[in-house]
Design brief:
Elements (H helix, E strand, L loop, with lengths): L9 E6 L2 H9 L8 E4 L7 E4 L1 H4 L9 H7 L4 E4 L2 H18 L3 E5 L2 E5 L9 H16 L3 E6 L2 H11 L4 E3 L5 H5 L12 H9 L5 H6 L2 H8 L1 H10 L15 E12 L2 H21 L2 E12 L4 E11 L2 H15 L6 E9 L2 E2 L11 H17 L7 H8 L24 E3 L4
Parallel strand pairs: 2-4, 7-8
Antiparallel strand pairs: 1-6, 1-7, 2-3, 5-6, 9-12, 9-14, 10-11, 10-12, 10-13
Length: 419
């Protein structure tokens, strides 16, 4: 039995081919068949695929046409993010009920600190029983790795997928990694992998023996971290999961306004700005809140739970629907705000189930331009019109003032906080 005295004990749980597993629960006829979850075979992108499809070389982010060529029998299923979000929350609740300290690293991955559990049931036994409980309650397949750090646990989980579990005892981290291909190590992508293989480095054992100074000369600061990982060293902490974390913006206008079109244009700008920040932080949001404060300081809010997303157009539609329901009186508005909450790590920047390769590339190009030149350079027409309104004093005049509301980019008081 493993004893974690003086050491951490970290479990990594990963739902096996999560989107596909959910689809198979909804339609038993899909079980055991080559499945691709995404848009369509013609213009869509593979978001997830079954292990049967992977045998043909199909993988995530692959164009649907290529997946069809590799596996003519593949079945494309349009994704249902609402269902995936619901199942993700269900598994999160199961884990939260059983352990005091865990990190939700993505919609389908979890790190759990099992340190000290050996004094009761034993870390390995408790981890195995937790996996059984998740499978029983959610009906989803899940795998785990248990070791002294997050790196080894994640690598181990990937090695025992699907529907497996493994325990790497403390002190065996380096020897466990040694025979594995270098691509098994997180942070080694195609470019770094090709570079190392051209040098004759094919296994993590060989990589771990390269002097750290040589890796620094080759890869810069990343060379230090790569050497540490190759030697099984990782002190990355568990980041506690808090559902209440949020990101948002609120603007207090210099002059109260009753112009609905003006307010909607500002909501467009705020939503676009906040969604960009969400993607910058590699986060997905599962809840949208809109806030209105009237001139009499009465404040009202309304929220909507949505499928996890980081896409402007999905948030824009939700914000508009909430605002239309929330703004139900003809009173001057002093402040409006937008907040995204139920945040989880993730990098699905748009709804890949509905969008084409062209729209995916468009989103990525827009974010690249904003990163390089600033987020103000590109924005939707409604947001740009909001900013330009300061030049048109004939519009957006309040009942008692000749000054029209101005944007947060100029003299409006902008507050960015967690409500």
């Amino acid at each position: 039995m493993f004893t974690s005295t003086g050491n951490r004990t970290i479990a990594h749980f990963d739902l096996d081919s999560f989107y596909v597993s959910v689809e198979c629960l909804k339609n038993k006829a899909l079980i055991g068949k080559p499945i691709a979850v995404g848009g369509s075979a013609d213009r869509g992108v593979v978001v997830s695929c079954s292990y049967e499809a992977r045998k043909f070389g199909v993988k995530a982010a692959m164009p649907g046409k290529l997946a069809r060529r590799l596996c003519p029998e593949i079945i494309f299923v349009r994704g249902d993010m609402d269902s995936y979000s619901r199942f993700s929350r269900e598994v999160t609740e199961i884990i939260a009920d059983e352990v005091p300290f865990f990190e939700k690293s993505s919609i389908d991955e979890f790190y759990i600190d099992m340190t000290g559990m050996d004094r009761f049931f034993g870390c390995a036994q408790y981890t195995a029983e937790l996996r059984k409980k998740i499978v029983k309650k959610s009906k989803l397949s899940i795998s785990y790795g248990l070791s002294a750090n997050k790196l080894i646990s994640k690598v181990a989980t990937n090695e025992v997928k699907p529907n497996g579990g493994i325990h790497i005892a403390a002190g065996n981290e380096k020897s466990y990694l040694a025979p594995l291909a270098i691509e098994k190590l997180p942070m080694i992508g195609n470019q770094t992998g090709t570079l190392l293989r051209n040098m004759g480095v094919e296994t993590i054992a060989v990589l771990s023996e390269i002097p750290v100074e040589m890796l620094m000369n080759l890869l810069g600061k990343n060379g230090i971290e790569l050497w540490r990982r190759a030697n099984g060293i990782d002190e990355t902490p568990i980041v506690p999961y808090h559902e209440a974390k949020s990101i948002g913006t609120e603007n207090t206008f210099e002059s109260d306004t009753i112009d609905v079109h003006f307010l909607k244009r500002e909501l467009v700008r705020m939503t676009e700005q906040t969604a960009f920040e969400l993607r910058e932080g590699n986060k997905l949001a599962g809840c949208v809140t809109v806030k209105i404060r009237y001139s009499n300081f009465q404040t009202v809010t309304r929220q909507a739970v949505i499928p996890y997303s980081a896409a402007d157009h999905i948030f824009q539609a939700t914000v508009k629907q909430i605002f239309d329901k929330l703004y139900d009186r003809r009173l001057l508005v002093r402040l409006i705000g937008v907040r995204f909450s139920h945040l989880v790590p993730g990098n699905y920047q748009i709804n890949l189930f509905d969008d084409t390769n062209e729209s995916i590339n468009l989103y990525q190009a827009i974010d690249q331009i904003k990163n390089r030149y600033g987020e103000k350079l590109l924005m939707r027409a409604a947001g740009a019109l909001f900013i330009s309104q300061k030049h048109n004093k004939a519009k957006h005049v309040s009942c008692t003032s000749t000054a029209n509301p101005t944007s947060a980019f100029d003299s409006a008081r902008s507050k960015r906080k967690n409500w």
